[in-house]
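Need tokens for this chain, all 178 residues.
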Amino acid sequence: MYIVLGVTGSISAYKAADIANRLNKDGHEVHVIMTEGAEAFITPLTLQTLSKNKVHVKEFEEYDPTVVKHIDLAGNADVVLIAPATANIIGKIAGGIADDLLTSVVMAAAVQAKIIIAPAMNTNMYENPIVQSNIEKLQKLGYEFIEPKDSHLACGTTGKGALANVDEIIGITESFDR
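Here are the structure tokens for all 178 residues:
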């Protein structure tokens, strides 16, 4: 299966390394897209080494002049998995905003690929009615969400907002077959 793994700027970004590694070992072709915020938490080299593919960060950094990168990634994707997904990325997708490589790929892939979103954020952010409304809107459009778990969060609070278990994320991702 061709999987585009979107990684956003959350403390949980380090778990994307395990996700990329396990999906690769399970025989999937994994292509990672990192947002600028994700680079503050984990390096592209880590994800490149584990995915065995070039990690994409910049939207208009084209490596092959015959290929439009965001259209190519979207067109090949069976699944676009965003893990972790911040409130920001969820809001941009719900609003139809495509202002970086990840959101552009999601907009181009949503018709033919399964989009799976695994939120990770502070409890108050996750429970914010705007975020919940964005999640509900996307669910009605067919986007699948993997609910965050209750945990002691990096910010020091306890509540819902921690990235779901990697096993659960892998299981849901691998259960989709185009």
